Amino acid sequence: MAKGDRLTSPRMPDMATLAERVQAAWATGDPLALHREVEQLAAAGHSQQALEDALEALLLSVRQAGAGDDAEEIINGVWDRLTGWCHPARHIETVGQTGTASGAASPTDGINAPERNTGQSAS
Q1: Any residues with CB less than 8 A from the CB of 25 and at least 6 apart, and which?
Q2: CB atoms < 10 A from the CB of 58, how many?
Q3: Sign of the C-alpha dihedral, residues 46, 49, 52, 53?
Q4: 3-class SS at 110?
Q5: CB-CB contact of 58 with 26 (8 Å)
Q6: What single-letter DSSP state applies at residue 31?
Q7: Is pTM, for the whole model, over 0.85?
């Protein structure tokens, strides 16, 4: 491997936009690749809104290409995980949702998550 190849390859994901990374995951043809990419992007600190924007761009692109309902369902499944419309164990949390950055409320709003909303005030 040439020195230039070694330096360029690890930096490529950093240089790609979120939409490009989501599109690249979709292009693999593996539905789980899209789930994994969004999980990694969320873990890297990207906001829920930025990830939703990338998924929306992908969805519009897939619709324009004439893909069927199955393709849309895969994308919507990832989107549901991102927004909390899923089992809590499958939820893809972004930094703002955990309360560590922006303090935004969880999409579950404390439902099924008693550690976030116990209803008891501190004494």
Answers
A1: 33, 34, 36, 37, 38
A2: 20
A3: negative
A4: coil
A5: yes
A6: H
A7: no
CB environment 17-47: b (16+ within 10 A), e (fewer): ebbebbbebbeeeebeebbebbbebbeeebb
Q: How many CB atoms lie within 10 A of CB 89?
A: 6
Average pLDDT over the chain, rounded to an integer = 77
Percent of the chain's residues with pLDDT above 70: 66
Residue 16: pLDDT band (50, 70, 90) is: confident
- Region 70-96: mean pLDDT is 94
Burial 94-111 (b: 16+ CB within 10 A, else e): bbbbeeeeeeeebbeeee
